[in-house]
Write a structure and sequence with these properties.
The protein has one domain: OB fold (Dihydrolipoamide Acetyltransferase, E2P). Helices cover about 10% and strands about 45% of the residues. Strands 6-5-4-7-8 form a five-stranded antiparallel sheet, with no helix packed on it. A hairpin with a 4-residue loop joins strand 7 and strand 8.
Amino acid sequence: MSTPSRYWREIPQRYRKEANRCAPCDLIYFPPRLICPECGNRALEKTVLAEKGSLMTYTIIRVPPSQFKDQAPYAVGIVEMDDGVKLTGQVVDCEFDKMHTGMRLQMEFRKMYDVGHSGIICYGYKFVPEY
C-alpha cells in the first residue's frame, strides 16, 4: 500500500506514463532511472510509453492483498508494449476464458484503490483489450 507522500512522488509515471530513454543505447526505462545500466549515460531524456502492446503471460489472482479484496478474482499480466518495455498490470474488461498470450491490449488510466483513512484515491494504468 502506498503512503500519500510516495503516491505523489510517483504521479509523473502513473499519470503521464513518463519513462526515460537512453539515446546511445536506445533503451527505455520504466520507472525512470538516473543512469543507464547498459552504458552509464547520465543524460537520459524523458519519453512517454507506448499505449499498446501484447500479453506475454498472465495469472488469475483469487486470494488478493487486502486493498484489492473487493476486486477478486482478477487477472494480472505482463505486457510487452510496442516500444519494448515490459509492464505488469491488471487486465480488465475481459473474460478470463477469452484471455490468451499474444492478445493485443491497450493501457488505460483507471482507479486502482483507496488509501483508507487518508482519503486518497490512487490511480494508475490497467490493460484492456484493444478496440
